Amino acid sequence: MDAKRHMETARGFLEAADKELADGDVLQGSEKLWGAASHAVVAAAQERGWDFGKHGAMKAAVRRLAEESGDPILVAGFAAARSLHANFYHDFMEDYDLEDNRLLVRGFVEKVTALNGAA
Fold first, then answer.
1. Backbone dihedral angles phi then psi of residue 92, each to the nearest 5 degrees
2. For 44-98, how does the pLDDT look when each residue is reduced to its tens digit (9 = 90+)?
3. Long-range contact pairs involving 68-75 (C-beta distance under 8 Å, separation at least 24)
4. 35, CA 20 to 30 Å: which among 45, 69, 89, 98?
5. Rounded distance, CA 32 to CA 107, Å?
């Protein structure tokens, strides 16, 4: 899958997450938000020739994107996505945490999309 397709997938997962959450499926909504963020990172890493094959490599890619863009909030957005990924397995988030993290992930994906030429 190329970078453009990963970005399209990221945006699709954002839409799917909103639907899942509106339908009350917190676990699937959480995982779709993680998927959106991770596909955005993969797209950015692919465009730049960076490693993205493991969680640690994805975290490093996000740090590099934050440095490249001068936007440290990207790190917080990806941390929110990682928390949502954990929520998929453990269902520990309160509704307000879920909403805060949803907004952070949406902003993260939008910012990474703007940084990508293939977007």
1. -105, -10
2. 999 999 999 898 999 999 999 999 999 999 999 999 999 999 999 999 999 999 9
3. 68/115, 69/111, 69/115, 71/111, 73/107, 73/108, 73/111, 74/108, 74/111, 74/112
4. 69
5. 15
